[in-house]
Write a structure and sequence with these properties.
By secondary structure, this protein is α/β, with parallel strands linked by helices. The protein has one domain (3-316): Rossmann fold. 36% of the residues lie in helices and 24% in strands. The protein has helices at residues 52-59, 83-92, 110-120, 127-140, 157-169, 187-204, 215-218, 239-244, 249-256, 263-268, 276-279, 302-313; strands spanning 8-21, 24-37, 41-45, 67-72, 75-76, 93-96, 175-179, 207-212, 224-229, 232-238, 288-291, 297-300. It has an 8-stranded mixed sheet, with helices on both faces. It has a 4-stranded antiparallel sheet with strand order 2-1-4-5, covered by helices on one side. Helix 3 runs parallel beside helix 5, helix 4 (127-140) packs across helix 5 (157-169) and helix 5 (157-169) packs parallel to helix 6. The longest helix is centred in the middle third of the chain and has 18 residues, at 187-204. It is globular and about 65 Å long.
């Protein structure tokens, strides 16, 4: 399906997030714009400190926007909105956090943790209905009914993340922001959690914004990928397009860091290091994010964009 035929569920427009400490300011997110289509998985990828989580937290209204706006299902959800609209955002947009240990209340039972959202929003007819919903979602995420009376510290990291997923999905949201949901887990458990997220997407028609620093993980679960560096978007493309034609040097450096299973090849491969000060001269030409076609967008100056087009399309044009 052509992107023009898809429904835009979330639209981020010229988003800035600035953190202030006394007289000093730090711009964590700088003029970021992208759309998320209904039913897709859009991944935001970049190294630690690049602003990925800050964008996710701005969407769920934890971090205030300094500039720009966020539109969800045609309505602006950034800035000042009514209490009713704020509650609507919380119900429809859920977040799965990176650290399952820190995001669960250690003093609460698993049943209470999963039920909390249902109780806050009165999303059940009676106590029997609430318990039935909690038991069903517990089973769906691969936990047992007897786990409901236990506490988070009695579980492994993978099980705790399943509780986090259950807590989000039981609210029947439309949109889930998964903030590095597998980075704290063992490699063997990661695939299980990713498969679980995929299963819920297919069954419930969920839309995901998946935040990660590992391109090898997002390649297989994403429809499109946004590459971000120091708060700015460097490249946006469909997953296979990005891997087939990585154009921005930062994207190339991230791909070069993906481990190769063959030890001999891994040992001899060359890591690409992104050094913006040496690679770009933006003192003369102003850079911007440009759509090259095929929904492939790259950040660069006019001369760099011309070069990227040549690499991507060669003699096609």
């Amino acid at each position: 399906m052509d992107n023009s035929e898809k429904k835009v569920l979330l639209s981020v427009r010229n988003l800035d997030v600035v953190f202030k400490s006394g007289k000093s300011k730090f711009k964590a997110v700088d003029n970021v714009s992208f759309d998320v289509y209904k039913g897709e998985t859009l991944s935001i990828v970049g190294e630690s400190g690049s602003g990925k989580t800050t964008i996710g937290r701005a969407i769920v209204r934890i971090n205030p926007c300094s500039n720009g706006e966020i539109i969800y299902d045609g309505k602006r959800i950034s800035g000042k909105i009514s209490r009713k609209e704020d509650r609507e955002v919380v119900r429809k947009i859920q977040m799965i956090f990176q650290d399952p240990s820190a995001s669960l209340n250690e003093r609460a039972t698993i049943e209470y943790i999963i039920s909390e959202g249902l109780m806050n929003f009165k999303l059940f007819k009676n106590q029997r209905d609430r318990i039935a919903k909690v038991e069903k979602i517990t089973k769906d995420v691969g936990l047992l009914p007897e786990h409901l009376t236990r506490y988070p510290h009695e579980f492994s990291g993978g099980q705790r993340q399943r509780v986090g997923i259950a807590r989000s999905v039981v609210m029947e949201p439309e949109f889930i922001i998964a903030d590095e949901p597998i980075s704290a887990l063992d490699v063997s458990i990661r695939a299980q959690v990713l498969n679980l997220l995929k299963k819920f997407q297919e069954e419930k028609g969920l839309t995901y914004l998946f935040i990660a620093h590992d391109l090898s993980v997002v390649r297989f679960i994403s429809d499109r990928i946004v590459v971000i560096y120091r708060g700015k978007i460097m490249e946006i493309a469909e997953s296979e397009e990005l891997f087939a034609y990585p154009l921005h040097p930062y994207t190339k450096s991230l791909i070069s860091a993906i481990p190769i299973p063959d030890p001999a090849i891994e040992k001899s491969k060359k890591l690409l290091i992104y050094e913006p000060e040496k690679m770009h001269d933006y003192s003369v030409e102003k850079p911007e994010l440009v759509d090259l076609g095929n929904g492939h967008m790259v950040y660069g100056s006019p001369s760099e964009i011309a070069e990227y087009k040549k690499i991507r399309f060669g003699n096609e044009q």
